[in-house]
Amino acid sequence: MIKIRRDIILTIGFAAVALMFFLGFFGEKAFAQDSIGASDGLTFWKAMVLGVIEGLTEFLPISSTGHLLAAKELMNLGQTEMSEQAIDSYIISIQIGAIFAIVVLYKNRILQMYEGLRGQSETGKIVLRNLAAAFVPTAVIGFFLADSVKDQLYDLELVSYAWIVGGVCILVAHGRKWFRRGRLKIEDLSFRGAIVVGLAQAVALWPGVSRSLITIVALVALGLSLAAAVEFSFLLGLVTLSAATFYELSQDGENIIDLFGYWTPLVGLIAAFISAAASVKWMVSWLENKSFSVFGFYRVVIGVLAIVLLSSDLV
To answer: What is the C-alpha to C-alpha distance for residues 25 and 30, in angstroms, rounded to an integer?
Structure first.
């Protein structure tokens, strides 16, 4: 489904990078009076770092939230109660950049779903129906548990354990060739199966679990090929992340702007878009011939490293 010409991607990338630097060096100075973010730590460069981390990790099965929480600690962001709330909300809302990357890269599939909505594509209709069925359980569970999760589970030590457990699960599954057993296409997923995927996705409310990982595993278990599972996971992420982002902005968007202004957060969103587009294209290309186990090894290593750093009081 990814048929974007390389020259177009490069043009968009260079233009976006140029815009980031313009906003960072000129926009922040021009509108410095609108933001007290610099005094609380969210500078242009830190926003860019968060954006790059979000984009690179959002759709890989390694947990974007876990990486962003670790980055937040390493960069000493959110030192006051108000700024911490704003940073945590920004960590969620920065997903907008990754969302737009999926819209661009999977525009043909999205168009097909639109045609399905109009009764012009049976495949598009099935995929759209299944996305809705998978989204609803997560939305309901997330609505009631999201605040509790943020209050109790946004802890780097818990994230570290989730990284390791998830990594071990990937390695065990890879050893049993589990990720290569499925043969079904994306349109072969049943309505009940989509609901199961939605329930599984809710487990990713626990930071470190990874929404991509849990949905891909569930889809492969239901018989989809790895390629079909990855694509459906990306599309489900588009729906789920959009809802979560707009909900978060409706709650704390004003607080983010009051503390950090407009330009610094926008730089992070653009960085997330560029890095997410690169990350998704790399993952799709990698899984065509390479092993899923690389994500398992990565999760175990970074989880152990995080625990060591935490025990050494370096984070």
So the answer is: 9
Query: Does 1 map to a domain?
Result: no
Residue 82 lies in a domain: yes
In a domain? residue 55:
yes
33-65 confidence digits (pLDDT tens): 344 444 456 888 999 999 999 999 999 999 998
* Cβ–Cβ under 8 Å, residues 125 and 300: no
Helix ranges, the chain (H):
6-22, 28-30, 37-40, 44-57, 64-74, 81-93, 95-105, 107-117, 122-152, 156-175, 191-202, 211-221, 226-260, 263-289, 293-311
pTM: 0.85
First-last CA distance in the chain: 41
Strand partners, 224: 184
Domain with 283, as residue range(s), is 6-311
Distance from the Cα of residue 164 to its chain's centroid = 19
CA 77 to chain centre: 20
Q: Which residues contact 214 (CB under 8 A, 6 or more apart)?
A: 200, 201, 203, 204
CA distance 258 to 168: 42
Quick check: is 283 in a domain? yes
- As a whole number of angstroms, the distance between CA 134 and CA 236 comes to 7
Give the chain's domain count: 1
